[in-house]
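task queued by scheduler; priority normal; single chain, no ligands, no partner chains; default sampling; output format set to structure tokens
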Amino acid sequence: MAHWTITLAREGAAIVVRGEGDDPHAPDRIDYEVRGDPGGVYRALLDRVAPGPWSFLLDRMKDERDLYWIADCAYTEALLHPGWSVKTDLPPLPEPEELPEDAVP
């Protein structure tokens, strides 16, 4: 069974998401740990994760429990909140085989 970690952190605070299972798209178990005081970033991350992936990502990410979706949300929150950064040990997603017809190259 594999283990993966996504950490959204700044000095003095961190939100750590751990997943385990055979597939990071559908982990058997996910848990969260909050260290220090992340302020509103924790609630913002939960709110961003809850609805699940946007429709254009559904071919690459399954649902709100997909660790790649959670990592994507963490990266977005890091961009929106200066001083925050993300570290993860998830393997890179493979490149899509082809672009959708309406994609701009």
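post-processing summary
- The mean pLDDT is 90.
- Residues 2-88 form one domain.
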